Amino acid sequence: MKPGDPTSKAGDELLSLDRRAPSDPAEYPHDDEFLAQQQKIERLNQYYDEVVAELRALLAQDRGDGG
After folding, report:
1. Residues with Cβ within 8 Å of residue 10, at least 6 apart in sequence
2. Taking a C-beta distance cutoff of 8 angstroms, is the pair 22, 28 a contact?
3. CA distance linking residue 49 with residue 23, whole number of Å
4. Running DSSP on this structure, what letter comes out for residue 6?
5. Which of 25, 45, 56, 62 has its CA 20 to 30 A from that of 14?
6. pLDDT tens, the chain, 67 aa long
7. Phi–psi pair at 37, nearest 5 degrees
8. Which DSSP helix (H) or strand (E) runs through 60?
9. Does the reported pTM lie above 0.70?
């Protein structure tokens, strides 16, 4: 980082081609903690999708009843 230049970056902040994310998802690390977290996120997404569907159905029902 150049002194007095806030736009310059320190050497360790620069993007290195060696540290890029793999382009193939199969190359990502798959340890137990990562997989557990991924499953939890998938369950939450499914739950939120169900809640949104229920809310939309309720709104549509209210509009159909003269709302």
Report:
1. 1
2. yes
3. 28
4. T
5. 25
6. 556 666 666 555 555 555 666 677 666 666 888 889 999 999 999 999 999 999 999 999 988 865 5
7. -65, -40
8. helix 32-64
9. no
Give the CA diameter of the chain: 67
Which tokens hold the place of 57?
């159905």
| Chain centroid to CA 26 | 18
With tokens 């949104």, the residue in question is 52
Residue type at 1 in one-letter notation: M
Q: What is the pLDDT of residue 14?
A: 55
In one-letter notation, the amino acid at residue 34 is F
Please report, as a single letter, which amino acid is at residue 50: E
CA distances from 14 to 10, 34, 39 (A): 7, 26, 32
Residue 42 near residue 48, CB atoms below 8 Å: no
